[in-house]
């Protein structure tokens, strides 16, 4: 068939083949396998590790993800045919490309950086949540303390007012007690209302009750 392998690197290779006029299928099968010495001489399709399907309008394919410094066998057939020896080629991959190694290192560094960033974000979120929780709890405790202090102040003010009222009532009741002590009999002073039209006779005060009592007859009302 005239199959050729070109542009071989440590991880890729381009396979080129002529178009097959006798192939009536809709695609070609590109099969490849590492370690040619382990392949069976029968070239069975099941013996190949990878198989790619390429439309019949194309006559080349780039094989990727190869292992550096490895011997490969590649075969190109029609869709349903088993490969023969004239449809296969053996080639060796090169060492790892410096650019590929650099890209691998960059990808590894990028992955580590992304992982570290995610972990840092998670830790920062946990710390922020903890700080907010502590602040809210302290603020709630502070508000509860202020409410308790206000209630205590209110109780103290109410007690003080009650004591002042009791003291004032005690002061007001003291003259009444003094009056009762001066008059043990509980005699109340009577108010004499004179009626000039009924009685005009002079009255003589008594020495005990100090009330104005008429000498003859009753001419006033005792309240």
Automatic annotation (TrEMBL):
Q: Which residues form the Fibronectin type-III domain?
A: 1-96
TM segment ranges: 110-136
Q: Which PROSITE patterns match?
A: FN3
Keyword Phosphoprotein assigned to the entry: answer is no
Q: Where is the signal peptide?
A: none
Q: Kindly state which keywords UniProt assigns to this record, in alphabetical order.
A: Membrane, Transmembrane, Transmembrane helix
InterPro entries per UniProt: FN3_dom, FN3_sf, Ig-like_fold
Q: Does the keyword Cell division apply?
A: no
- Which residue stretches belong to region Disordered? 144-185, 200-223
- Which superkingdom, per the lineage? Eukaryota
- What's the protein here called? FNDC9 protein
Organism the protein comes from: Phaetusa simplex (large-billed tern)
């Amino acid at each position: 068939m005239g199959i050729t392998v070109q542009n071989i690197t440590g991880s890729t290779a381009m396979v080129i083949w002529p178009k097959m006029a006798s192939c009536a299928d809709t695609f070609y099968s590109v099969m490849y396998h590492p370690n040619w010495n382990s392949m069976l001489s029968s070239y069975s399709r099941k013996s190949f590790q990878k198989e790619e399907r390429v439309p019949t309008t194309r006559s080349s394919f780039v094989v990727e993800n190869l292992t550096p410094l490895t011997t490969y066998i590649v075969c190109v057939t029609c869709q349903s045919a088993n490969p023969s020896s004239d449809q296969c080629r053996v080639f060796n991959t090169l060492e790892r490309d410096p650019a590929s190694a650099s890209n691998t290192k960059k990808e590894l560094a990028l992955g580590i950086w992304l992982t570290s960033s995610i972990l840092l974000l998670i830790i920062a979120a946990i710390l922020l949540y903890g700080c907010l929780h502590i602040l809210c709890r302290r603020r709630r405790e502070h508000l509860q303390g202020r409410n308790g202090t206000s209630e205590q102040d209110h109780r103290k003010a109410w007690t003080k007012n009650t004591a002042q009222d009791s003291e004032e009532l005690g002061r007001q009741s003291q003259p009444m007690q003094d009056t009762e002590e001066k008059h043990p009999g509980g005699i109340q002073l009577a108010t004499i209302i004179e009626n000039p039209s009924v009685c005009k006779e002079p009255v003589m005060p008594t020495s005990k009750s100090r009330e104005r009592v008429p000498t003859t007859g009753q001419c006033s009302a005792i309240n």
